[in-house]
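haha ok so turns out i had the wrong file open the whole time. this is the CORRECT one, sorry everyone. sequence first:
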Amino acid sequence: MKIEFRQLSSDDGKDIYDMLQEIPRDENGFTNNVNGKTFEEFKQWLLRQEEIANGIGLEDWMVSSNTYWLYVDNVPVGMGKLRHCLTDKLREEGGHCGYAVRTSQRNKGYGNFIMRRLIEKARERNIDKLLLTIQISNIPSLKVALSCSGKIERSSEQRHYIWIDVEEKS
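then structure:
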């Protein structure tokens, strides 16, 4: 099995577009703004995501972030996003990262794989701790966070606040 974790590129094509059509638009707090869009709108979205990754044209409420694709045997099966920093609002709703796995590829451990790669990417960016805000009802993502050494800091009626120490363990 060949597994790759690729950063979004404006050259991404129909395979990524098709995957994003399979991931629900809004599920468990993860928003997929490409679901239901045309291929041309997807290509424009890719360009905007590259700008966001480079801190270009950010609105006051936005922070730089990178998007990554998980490929298994050259087929995209999921995605992850990593924010470079947090605002007060993101500390309450959003956190540093999120991920999604296409519906047809769930329950295969890909969420765990994506989360571990996001931790590596955070380490490369010198982010020492990651905050995940996970909806109370999202048991699969809670299990992923905890299996990646996440610690529940607190919980509200809506979500758990989980911190993951990014430092490498010896």
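The chain has one domain: 3-127.
again sry for the mixup
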